[in-house]
Amino acid sequence: FFFVYVAMSTRSTMSTESTPLIAPSPTSAGIVSSFNAENLPPVVQEYIGVCQFYGIVTNSGVLTTLRFGLSELKVSGEFGDKDMLALADLFCKYWDTELAHITKVDFSAEACNLRSHGAVSLAQVIARNKNLTLVKVSGNKIGPYGGKALAQALEHTNVKRMYMRGCFIGEEGAKDFAQYALQSPDTALRVLDLSVNGVGFMGTEYIRMALQSRAVMKLPPISVDDTGNLVFVEVMNSVTHGVGFVLCILGTVFLGIKVSDRDWRHITACWVYSVTLCLLFVSSTLYHSFFALKVTRSVFHVLDLSAIYLLIAGTHTPFLCIALANKPIWSVWMMGFLWLCCVFGVAVEAMVVHQCKDAMALCLYLVMGWAALLPLRDLIAVLPWQAVVYLVLGGVVYTLGVPFFVRDRNLDHAVWHVFVLVAAALHWWDVYWYLVPFPCEKPPCV
């Protein structure tokens, strides 16, 4: 029995070994055996070798661009200074041969973490590569040192668009860009984004003077976005109109209580005025509060400018609809014209993008505001002289603030906000004490 058992076991083992459980796929086996690193383009092989030399992992975005000859190199995943160094070695060697197809580079991915020395490596790429036209490094905290390296590289370059939002180059970095890139006659730069870089007022002044110098030399213009750099200024802008919004809420409550026992015309006119007043101050406060958020700021910017039209028309409403209710030429036709101008202005702010839009808007503000002079004779005939004085004085205060609004340097806009706050307070006082009780036999002397 023992010999029979051994013989059967040996036969079973031989049968199992001679019949594999899973037969190998000839197709997959062929691919594995025929594919090796020698089949890759030389530039890909060299990139892998450089990464091994520096002890870093290859970047999938770079590999894809090199392997398939894409025109835009967009890194993916983590990408730091050593990764930039390896890529710079490759660019400096092959920029006019194997890498001539790359015209755009994007290092603005969320996980990208370039610092000052990474910017120095990138500067070498920009300075030597004559094919690059677009460079994005937004969100990388390269600092003033890295900013200077990039500014010097842009002095003689073919790069037309450079995006550096939130790179924290500071005042010194702005000074370097003004000195090297913005005044250079040899640069091809046409668009430069330096927003939210903490350059401060002096940094923006360096940029402004460099652009003026460029215009004097009759060099091609460069569009520079330097918004979001005046932190203290934006805080003051937010605070001034934030205080105004709080006062508007209180004013709306008091005005609503005072007008609650009047007729529908008084109530409607006062509520329209109160809503437009609150809308102006809250939209302005939010616009200046979100100065570092590009999309959010642009939305509130439209609301901020549109609210000016609304407030002008809303301020006229109580005077025309209450004091001149029995004169349709003012209470109907002029009121309708003002609100049509308001709708037109809001539509322009929301849909039109033109360099002349700001000048047109300012003219429309002044025309709508001083339209109060047209019915002035009739207002004098029905209102106490104090009411007319407050009305005109408010318009004068608004107008006195316009030069600060136009110049808009350093704290000028905050000063403009103070003028708006004072003028709005004068008009609110007028509505509260003279229009809500109108008509009355004995007007208050306030």
Automatic annotation (TrEMBL):
Membrane topology listed for this record: Multi-pass membrane protein
Record localization: Membrane
An annotated Gene Ontology molecular function: metal ion binding
Pfam family, one: HlyIII
SMART domains cross-referenced by the UniProt entry: LRR_RI
Binding-site residues for Zn(2+), renumbered to this chain: 288, 413, 417
TM region(s), chain numbering: 239-257, 269-287, 307-325, 332-353, 388-406, 418-436
Metal-binding is among the record's keywords: yes
Keywords on record: Membrane, Metal-binding, Transmembrane, Transmembrane helix, Zinc
Gene3D superfamilies per record: Ribonuclease Inhibitor (3.80.10.10)
Cellular component GO terms held in the UniProt record: membrane
Primary localisation category: membrane
Domain of life: Eukaryota
Keyword check for Methyltransferase: no
Name of protein: Uncharacterized protein
Origin species: Eutreptiella gymnastica
